[in-house]
Amino acid sequence: MVANEQDWTAAGPxxxxxxxxxxxxxxxxxxxxxxxxxxxxxxxxxxxxxPGWATEESEAEVIRVLRVLGYSLADVRTTVCTHHxxxxxxxANRWRETIGSRQLIGREERHSVLGxxxxxxxxxxxxxxxxxxxxxxDLADAIASMGVPDLExxxxxxxxxxxxxxxxxxxxxxxAFEVIATPGHTRGHVILRHTSSGALITGDHVLPxxxxxxxxxxxxxxxxxxxxxxxxxATLALADGLLLPAHxxxxxxTHERVREQIAHxxxxxxxxxxxxxxxxxxxxxxxxxxxxxxxxxALDELAVEHRMIATGEIRSHLEVLRERGAVIVxxxxxxxxxxxxxxxx
Length: 345
Ligand SMILES: [Zn+2]
Hints:
Blueprint: E1 14-17, E2 20-26, E3 34-42, E4 45-49, H1 56-68, E5 76-81, H2 86-98, E6 102-106, H3 110-115, H4 125-133, H5 137-144, H6 150-153, E7 162-164, E8 169-171, E9 176-181, E10 190-194, E11 199-203, H7 224-237, E12 243-245, H8 255-277, H9 283-289, E13 291-292, E14 297-298, H10 304-323, E15 327-329, E16 337-339
Parallel strand pairs: 4-5, 5-6, 6-7, 11-12
Antiparallel strand pairs: 1-2, 2-3, 3-4, 8-9, 9-10, 10-11, 13-14, 15-16
Helix pairs in contact: 4-5, 5-10, 7-8, 8-10, 9-10
This protein binds zinc ion (ZN).
Zinc ion (ZN) is lined by residues 83, 85, 185, 204.
C-alpha cells in the first residue's frame, strides 16, 4: 500500500511488502511529525527496525499494533537501527533493558555512541571547536552553554549488542535484511534491503521531501558530505525498489529521489563556490549570507542549534569543494577557504 502525502502518519500497521509492515510512531519533538518504524518476522521472533523514541505514548502504539498483528511486545527479539539519533535508537536502548531484545546498529556509529555522555561539560564538542575555528565565537558560546534536554537524559544510553557491517545479512523468516553502509547523515548510518521484495528501508539517508542533515552527531567525520554522496551513487546501482523512508510517505521507486538529492547537493556546491569567489571565506559567513528552510529564514532567525547545523552543512560542502580542488584552505588564522587558481569545479 502506498500512502499519499497527507496521511503518512496515519496509524498502522501498513503492509508495504509481503510480511513487512510500516508502523508510524509519534515523536515528542516539534517539527517532525512521526518516525516510520518497520517490522518483519525473524527466525526467532520479530525483527523491529527503527522502533522510535522511548516514550510511553510511542510504546503504547507499538503494543496496540503488535496486538492487531497477533503479537506482544515480548515477541520483539531483535532491534535494528539505521542510526543512533534518538528518534530511531532510544526505544531500542530501552527495550534492551526492559524486554531483553538484541540491539544492532552500524559499526561506524561506535564513534558517537561510545563517545556520547549526557554528563559532558559541553554539548557538541566537535561542532563548538569548529565554530571557534570559523570565527563564530558567539554561536560557539551559545552552543557550549546549552544543557542536555531532559528528553535525552531520561533513558539509559549504551552500546548495542552487535555492530553491523556492510554486506551483512540479518535473517528473516523469509529472506533477509541486507545491510548497506550509507555514511553521511551519521558516520555509521545503514540502509536495509528487504531481499524478498527488493524494497529499501532508507532511514534518514534518502527522504521523500527533505534532504537529511549531514554529520550532525557527537563525533562527526571530517568530510561527511563526500561520504554521503558516494553511497547515493551506489544506491543507483541497485535495482529500483520501493522507498521506505524513516520520515514521510512510501515512494514507488528509490532512483528518482536519489537523483534529486544528488542534484540538490551539486546545486548547493555551485552556490557555495560562487560565494567563495565573491570573497566570503568562512563556513559561518557563507551560511549567514544564505536563506534557510522552506520559509527562507536568515541564519540568525533560526534556533541556535539549527544555526550550528546550517554552518556545519556549509563546512561539509566546502570540504567537498576542497577535495575536488576548487577551493583551498588559507594557510593560517581562522579556517578560511579561498578559490583555487584557476577556478574549477
Ligand atoms: Zn537522523
